[in-house]
Amino acid sequence: MPLTSAELNYLIWRYFQETGYDLSAFTFDRQSQCSKYEHQENEDIINRIEPGCLVDLVQKGILYTIAESDAKDDSDYTLLGALVQQEITNLSDSNFSKTKNNKRFQLKSEAEENGNRKEDEMDIDNGVAYNVNTETKELSTELHFSSSLSCDWHPTSEVLAYGKSNGSVIINAIGDGKFVESVEVSHPDLLNAKNEINIVSWSPLGNLLLTAGAFSEIRAWSPDGKLRNIANTVFEDISAESEIKQSLITNILWSKSGKFVITIDSANNTTVWDGVTLSLIRQIQTEESNDVATTNATIDANGDAVQTACWLSEDKFALTTATQGIKIYDITQPYVGVNSYEVRAIGSLPGHQNHISLMKLNEFSKLLVTCSDFDYEIKVWTSSAAHTSLDLNVKTERNQALKLHASPIIGLHWIPDTDRSILASLSMEGILNMWDAETGDNLKSSELFKNAENFSPEVRHNVSKDVLLFNSVLSPNGKLLAVGDDFGKVSIWDVNVKSHKGEDKSFVRCVAIYTPSIPPEGETKESAIGLSDLRWDHGSKTLAASYIGIESVIINV
């Protein structure tokens, strides 16, 4: 087989890039000019070079050399003999080529044909772990509950709360795989309007449950179903004859200990509440964030954009503004012994060129990440440099294999890791990127549903490549990412970076899939069927999925 020095240099350069040796790849290219091999005449060859090609060729070369040496009955080993001597010593059969226990040199294609790969088994060469087949389980439901828009697990026990379209909320205790106790609470209808419950949210300590219904009405309940308080973010007389916009609560954000809670409604009212009594502290309306002059065109373009907030500490939070910036607020008690609080702006970040859709804080490193649905920018902010940010979702010399997000980003998830600040970003078209948010390095980049290698062979035919993703939620232990698509399917992905170190960046394991039972068209009264919410329990073992149009489910992962 002819292999020129230019081709060998190109394969070595590709190997450096695939394994993350960016500086070595840059230096090697400067000296050998191997990147010039990428021109139109070699396009057919380059398209056939898959990740790990160099290692695959080396493995084949080793096998060929061993077979040749054994055929010649050559006992004079050179460098190769020294490298494989330990393996030869450990074999009981003196004929090395005939033994079946030679997994050290087994190729990926041979392993797939023989079907002798075990779950989580890896071939390792030069410290790099390679693509393995992991079983993708097809999950079945453990329990069913009513159609719902929202659900939430109690933070410390197997108790699930979910809201129904008739204004009632069910609190279910689960034991031994079944519902053992239930409590029902309700929101009465207002102005003959259906009081559908669109959000339920447990406090971090589990001592309070907030439920949100029509006209942004919020009710606070004890875990046993006793009403604690009623509040509303629309401070108008809803009994008046004038037309009132039916705003809905779009987000509920608790501070870490539950001392405060923020609600955001569809009218862009951001309200800070006492997390114990649900008494009003302050409402921040859109115009208060409008610090600089903006044209009518800018206001019209972003008028329907809902604000986003994020807790930075127990008494500080960040809030997006109408000018695509970020304001930092502080909650203080004005005098010792006074029960009232003051909320004041203490700083700002310049933000994006377009509306900010998501904002998440890493509790360990205190890095703040934001993204925009319009231009798909992802920015990472640090408290030590408030006016500069690290831009992700851009290709650099270090991120040549990166697949850029080209559709709205539906999820930003910080992976719990005390050593590095690892961020997972997921976009609607199914691209998952894992980042080192301190350096900007891309750790993994995969088209989840278009890469058949992400699934075990027996389920690949059931997986559609053309899906849109709308839901994503990270398990509390940070190892599994649950994703919901437009077919209502729920897929579970292994995002434990520590176990993936050195693997092909395009490979992400799908460990399980749940496919709902959709009635044939015309057999359901509902005009729309879809997945509306996903929630992990505190043990990262059970997943609750709220569906509209069909029954919701609890899945044991």
UniProtKB/TrEMBL annotation:
WD repeats: 402-445
Xref: SMART domains: LisH, WD40
Biological process annotations from GO: regulation of transcription by RNA polymerase II
Pfam families cross-referenced by the UniProt entry: LisH (PF08513), WD40 (PF00400)
Domain of life, per lineage: Eukaryota
InterPro entries cross-referenced by the UniProt entry: Ebi-like (IPR045183), LisH (IPR006594), Quinoprotein_ADH-like_sf (IPR011047), WD40/YVTN_repeat-like_dom_sf (IPR015943), WD40_rpt (IPR001680)
Location of the protein in the cell: Nucleus
Keywords from the named record: Nucleus, Repeat, WD repeat
Gene Ontology terms for molecular function: transcription corepressor activity
PANTHER family with a match to the protein in the record: F-BOX-LIKE_WD REPEAT-CONTAINING PROTEIN EBI, WD40 REPEAT PROTEIN
Name of this chain's protein: LisH domain-containing protein
